[in-house]
Amino acid sequence: xxxxxxxxxxxxxxxxxxxxxxxxxxxxxxxxxxxxxxxxxxxxxxxxxxxxxxxxxxxxxxxxxxxxxxxxxxxxxxxxxxxxxxxxxxxxxxxxxxxxxxxxxxxx
Amino acid sequence: xxxxxxxxxxxxxxxxxxxxxxxxxxxxxxxxxxxxxxxxxxxxxxxxxxxxxxxxxxxxxxxxxxxxxxxxxxxxxxxxxxxxxxxxxxxxxxxxxxxxxxxxxxxxxxxxxxxxxxxxxxxxxxxxxxxxxxxxxxxxxxxxxxxxxxxxxxxxxxxxxxxxxxxxxxxxxxxxxxxxxxxxxxxxxxxxxxxxxxxxxxxxxxxxxxxxxxxxxxxxxxxxxxxxxxx
Lengths: 108, 231
Known about the structure:
- The complex is a heterodimer of chains A (about 110) and B (about 230).
- Helix content of chain A is about 75%, strand content about 5%.
- Chain A is mainly alpha-helical and about 110 residues long.
- Chain A has a domain at about 1-35.
- In chain A, a hairpin with a 2-residue loop joins β1 (about 60) and β2 (about 65).
- In chain A, α3 (about 70-85) packs antiparallel against α4.
- The two termini of chain A are about 30 Å apart.
- The mean pLDDT of chain A is about 95.
- In chain B, about 70% of the residues lie in helices and about 0% in strands.
- With about 230 residues, chain B is mainly α.
- Chain B has two domains: about 5-165, no CATH class; about 185-230, no CATH class.
- Chains A and B meet through α1, α2, β1, β2 and α3 of A and α2, α3, α4, α5 and α6 of B.
């Protein structure tokens, strides 16, 4: 690492400011308009699509590569439990537990 | 809505409060390892700490620190981090009505993360949506930052979150929260299309971009006739 401290602080602040602008845009703009029900519904769908894509990519890929078996297996166990309406705590602990046990057994 | 009523809602809904607590605990451990990794890569202690307070977005923080630690250009690191965070624009429009005005809107925007948005989305009524969003957002902000500070201070001896299966816990958390919405056919079809796009493009594109491209899946929902849309 050769970067100067002021440059690094500035980089962090710019990333923070930009991220905040992304976050603030919706709440600030929403106040000035009334969205029709269909637009509200589409926004909800868009959010679900984003979260689902996030789930899929973080489950199957790490840094752009399909690298792990234990992680997807854990998430799959969690998914089945969630689909069968198991309590949230059970879903999360089963997913983590499955991945942890598989890794303990040497599965990548 | 006053902060007190949010507290009251969370006290009344023990299950929701417990679920939020569990997620915050898991994220604190991930924060612990984020702090330790950053310092382990030779970065100063203040960097992961400041980053976590100012940016407060795990995935972007990992991308930023990874690029800086490997000697990357700071402009490129900032842009890469921003790209990962663009999705918050959509989140903001969806949960914007839960935030209020003035300082509440400022604070509420800052605690907008995948988990707080997903928790809000999974609630059946406005009072609980607001309580889940704020409860998760504020508690997570505390846990994440304490975790990162502790991890950066303790350094490399912190255990690997993957050994605890926490890398599987994060997607499982989001999936469990999003699943009720996926029981709607159109939403499920849109999500499946988005997921396919994200997975197909992820090996070739920079982090953040595949998830944004997944938004094309919403076209499926657009094609749905107006009459079928629930009011």
